[in-house]
Amino acid sequence: DGILPYLEEILQTMIPSLEFYFHEDVRRAAVASLPDLLRAGKIAVTKGVKDQAWFQQLVNHIIPPLIQAMAKEPDVEIQVRRQINTRSTNQASKQVMRLMDSPSRRSKHC
Q1: What are the residue ranges in the chain where pLDDT is below 50?
Q2: Are 56 and 65 in contact (CB under 8 A)?
Q3: How far apart are CA 100 and CA 80, in angstroms?
Q4: In contact, 93 and 39? CB cutoff 8 Å
Q5: What pLDDT score does 107 carry?
Q6: pTM for this one?
Q7: Phi-psi region for residue 48, left (φ > 0), alpha (ψ -120 to 50) or beta?
């Protein structure tokens, strides 16, 4: 609830941090924050503060850079899987897991 006014600003920092070249901990912090940001967005929809279309835009804003980061660095994928498996069961998380497990994505790592 309280994070909603700052959500866009946080995303503007965290999404580029997924590819922060100089420090692994920065990339890990960015990955760790994204499920919580999605969760905050979903809570806003549940409370009627935002609508489903807004949430879909949020998902579309977060997921592609996350998938790109995972393609570049296996450690990011491990972090994402850990975050999703331990902290989240929402539809966006399930969508990420399906994308991560898709045959076309796996073939890029071989």
Answers
A1: 89, 104-110
A2: no
A3: 10
A4: no
A5: 46
A6: 0.65
A7: left
Widest pairwise Cα distance in the chain: 44
- C-alpha–C-alpha distance, residues 11 and 78, integer Å: 21
- Which tokens hold the place of 75? 């450690």
Sole residue written with tokens 């796996």? 106
Task: Give the separation between CA 24 and CA 11, rounded to whole angstroms.
Answer: 18
DSSP-assigned states of every residue in 31-92: HHHHHHHHHHHHHHHHTTSS-HHHHHHHHHHHHHHHHHHHHH-HHHHHHHHHHHHHH--SHH
Phi first, then psi: give them for residue 90, nearest 5 degrees: -75, 170
Q: Which two tokens stand for residue 79?
A: 């972090």
* Distance set, CA 15 to CA 30, 34, 103 (Å): 7, 9, 25
**Residues in contact with 89: Cβ distance below 8 Å, sequence separation at least 6, in sequence order:** none
